[in-house]
Automatic annotation (TrEMBL):
InterPro entries: Glyco_trans_1. This is Glycosyltransferase. The chain crosses the membrane at residues 95-117. Residues 199-355 form the Glycosyl transferase family domain. It comes from Paenibacillus psychroresistens. One of its GO terms (biological process) is lipopolysaccharide biosynthetic process.
Length: 423
């Protein structure tokens, strides 16, 4: 069965995630007709693994250029629309949305285009908006989405509580650590090694233990809350912030550091961190801190990467992160957005840095989240998603009609968004 995988991005943490899923599918069925569709990536090249397999294709640049002028929500809708039209034009019978989070509204509004196709998706966080949860569960109930993969029992339970009759369509697959866990950085790039050596030397002047806040500086990641909590700590420590600018930039952070007079307690490495450099930061650190706001309900890559290296993790007590830390006993939790509670738990983490109980729990948890276990279960779910119906989806035979249909539906999308009050 011709299978299309779609991800709206192909950089950062998406790269390893997508590669792992594709490897698992091809290992399970090396005769699988598989195509990976994504948007052009301008930050770095698509992984050598995907290029080697020659299965990667991109949404046309001319369409991307038009979409770049549109609001994010409308852009996501039209990209999803393109995926559905592309699948029909090229005779695909199965589509898996690797990040279905940004496709829910489009699938709901354009469901006639899904008829005859086998659709599945992976949801990375429980929707914060009730309307989105309602649309998602209806897609499952109506069999438009036949299977939904989530990365934890918290998200699965929330969806089932929302609509009990979809329980057999939601599968939980624990998110593995997708980076290597060698004691030294595994990057062989001379420039990377030079940067790592310089950082390690500079950090010798700072006090241990070393706290790590890793990833893009989005608002929901709460880096400003972490800096405020640092001013309320009793224990000595150094915070390493490594990640690219987003809602916060380096000047914003420097201003906050001056405000709380903690400049000597923070080391900034504000830049895009390539995948091959991630290992260095986690091995260098002692404690991983997740200062996420209440709006963040999904699982965390830094959590799994930290646990894989037996690093103590401090995270919020809500969402998938809170459930994971508490249920498996692999870290400490605090009341999200409470900077004093966060400061207290970081102090406790420093005092419990060598806790044998937490280490034992982390060892057991790590056995559950190996890459092989992830690939096996994920591929089983996707490949089992076959249709009992003998009716094939209608195919657009004349590919010249593809863009005409796309732009016709573009107008419909804008109309629907206006009717729903989203424009």
């Amino acid at each position: 069965m011709k299978t299309l995988l779609f991800d709206h991005a192909s950089d950062g943490h998406h790269t390893h995630y997508d590669n792992t899923v594709i490897q698992g599918l091809l290992d399970a069925n090396n005769a699988l007709e598989l195509t990976f569709l994504t948007c052009p990536n301008h930050e770095n090249t698509t992984s050598s693994y995907l290029e080697h397999l020659s299965i990667t294709t991109y949404i046309p640049q001319r369409i991307q250029q038009i979409l770049n002028y549109l609001p994010t929500r409308l852009k996501s809708m039209l990209i999803t629309l393109y995926v559905l039209v592309y699948a029909r034009a090229h005779g695909f019978k199965r589509i898996h949305f690797l990040y279905v989070d940004c496709c829910v509204l489009a699938l709901y509004l354009f469901f006639p285009l899904t008829l005859g196709l086998k659709l599945s998706g992976t949801l990375h966080r429980f929707p914060a908006q009730k309307s989105k949860s309602n649309m998602l569960t209806k897609l499952l109930k109506w069999n438009i989405l036949q299977k939904l993969v989530v990365h934890g029992e918290y998200t699965k339970n929330r969806l089932v509580q929302f609509r009990a009759d979809i329980a057999n369509r939601v599968e939980s697959v624990l998110l593995p650590n997708l980076q290597k866990t060698d004691e030294i950085s595994y990057s062989t790039n001379a420039h990377d090694l030079e940067i790592h050596t310089l950082i390690a030397q500079q950090l010798k002047a700072y006090k241990r233990p070393l706290l790590l806040a890793f990833g893009g500086l989005r608002h929901e990641k709460g880096i400003d809350l972490l800096l405020e909590s640092l001013a309320n700590m009793e224990q000595e420590a150094t915070l390493l912030i490594a990640g690219s600018e987003s809602c916060f930039n380096k000047d914003d952070l420097l201003q906050i550091l001056e405000q709380y007079k903690i400049r000597d307690k923070v080391f900034l490495d504000i830049r895009y961190i390539p995948n091959e450099q991630v290992d260095f930061y986690f091995n260098l650190s002692d404690i991983i801190v997740l200062p996420y706001r209440k709006s963040f309900l999904g699982q965390s890559g830094p959590l799994t990467e930290g646990v894989a290296r037996s690093k103590l993790v401090v995270g919020p007590n809500h969402g998938e992160i809170g459930f994971t830390l508490q249920h498996f006993g692999i870290g400490l939790v605090y009341e999200s957005e409470d900077v004093k509670a966060l400061a207290f738990q970081i102090d406790q983490a420093i005092l419990k840095l060598n806790s044998p109980e937490i280490r034992e729990n982390q060892t057991r948890y790590h056995k559950l989240v190996t890459v092989n276990a992830f690939k096996h279960k994920y591929s089983q779910i996707i490949l089992a998603n076959t249709s009992n119906s003998k009716r094939n989806p209608p195919r657009i035979k004349n590919l010249a009609h593809l863009e005409v249909l796309y732009y016709m539906l573009y107008v419909e999308a804008i109309t629907n968004l206006w009717l729903f009050g989203l424009l």
